[in-house]
Write a structure and sequence with these properties.
By secondary structure, the protein is of the alpha/beta class. The chain has 12 helices and 13 strands. It has a single domain, classed as TIM Barrel (Alpha-Beta Barrel), CATH 3.20.20. Helix content is 38%, strand content 15%.
Length: 351
Amino acid sequence: MNNLFLKLNYLIPPEISHHLFINILKYNFVRQKFEHKNLEVNLWGKRFKNPLGLAAGFDKNAEAINGCLNIGFGFVEVGTVTPKPQVGNSKPRVFRIPEYQAVIQRLGFNNKGIDFFMDNIALHKKKSKNAIIGSNIGKNKDTSDYVLDYCYLLKKCEEFSDYIVVNVSSPNTPGLRDIQKKDMINLLLKELHSKKSKKIPLLIKISPDINYSDLENICDVAVKEKWLNGIIVSNTTTTRESLKNKPIKNSWKIRENGGLSGPPIFDISNTILSKTFRLTKGKIPLIGVGGISTPEDAFEKIAFGANLIQIYTSLIYQGPWVVPKILKGLSSLLAINGFKNIQSAVGHKVK
């Protein structure tokens, strides 16, 4: 079934394939799980059955939460959602790079808006209160006040979300990454911190292309000001240097604008992850995302400072079966390397 799924997947344009995948999960056609005591994580007062989550961008409208949990994820992050619905950038806007099992995309926060999004999360929470769901929020492309957008989304998401992620790192919304700069991000985080309820963890998702001074500032306000409860490292990259190691059949694709994800971003995101762990001195929970496709990749993310990890692109190339594969392998790697659990392995490679 795995091979048939993947063959059909490659024959269909990326966005149509993604729509079909969402529907497969929405109707719970795939059910699987792997559990082991050494994979459990306790964070923000919540018990994660395992550290592997679904990254934002896959289920933008929170339509397939139950199906995503049923394929073995320990938590699911939905979105990015904006206050008003928006169609995103013009098509084509998703490009597969199979030689690297990578993707370049410039979707541009296409979603059905916060009301549709929250109706779906509320419905799921009424059925399953134990599911851990994160809401990833972003400003509308045409907004005149980015702070207002994020504050509005925060208040809308608080009731039914287990954590909220401020996405200021997508390369596909003009000017969004500028919000990572000191003056803009400090204004936003201070305002969000003052408006949020005390119980909801607030995280920020950063770019792998972030400059060191901006990273240093974000880590500083997280630790000293306590405006953040976690940092997600990282979003997609606009660089293409990691695609120059072998020939690409449709080489024109790498000249397309957009964010690159998949294995080529693994080392780039790990570099930022280890810097973030070092700057925060391990005091702030980190979620590592970017290029994970094997158990070894997952173990390395944790070794560089991640308390939790997320995948997306490897689902495209390996299907839902990649989830138990990573979990089984990760559990074994922890035991082989003498670690009792995830927490004991966090950051052990950071010097």
